[in-house]
Amino acid sequence: MTTQTKKPSHSVYHVEGEGQKKFWTKIGAAWAHEDGKGINIQLTCLPVDGCLVVRKPRTDEQKGDAMSALPTYVVPYEEMPTEEVQQ
Is 86 a domain residue? Predict the structure, then answer.
């Protein structure tokens, strides 16, 4: 496996849920090929459900309020499973 030497051109996210209940988790980076016909993807994990979204990073002008631009990483407390973990 080769190491990427330049800054990634895209971010890779795992997206679960639908509509307003979508949760985005950044799980990797991607580098576009110079000829524009492909992309190399490096993941830190491999999800078994949901979908993968590959997006170009936003520019400073597009970000606006930095906090509202951040993906959601945490499940709201009210939606946490209540089942006990068995040992």
Answer: no
